[in-house]
Write a structure and sequence with these properties.
Distance between the termini: 25 Å
Structural class: mainly alpha
Radius of gyration: 12 Å
Shape: flat
Largest sheet: none
Low-confidence stretches: none
């Protein structure tokens, strides 16, 4: 997924408003267990497209998972 992040970041630079790229970046960061960046990406997607169901779902799931992880 590290390689995916590299290409998705480049795609994001070319088209910063593309919600699909931001969403896929969120998924890649989540797979890499970079939950802070994943959360940021999902929030950006929702900001650009408030009806993006998958971003809402993944963000909710991520928040629940983070609450379950002991500090």
């Amino acid at each position: 997924f590290q390689e995916s992040v590299k290409y998705l970041k480049h795609a994001h630079q070319l088209n910063p408003a593309d919600v699909d790229t931001l969403y896929n970046l969120g998924v890649a960061y989540e797979k890499l267990k970079d939950f802070k960046r994943a959360t940021q990406m999902y929030k950006k997607v929702i900001q650009l497209d408030p009806s993006h169901v998958e971003a809402h779902s993944n963000l909710t799931h991520l928040k629940h998972e983070l609450k379950r992880v002991p500090s």
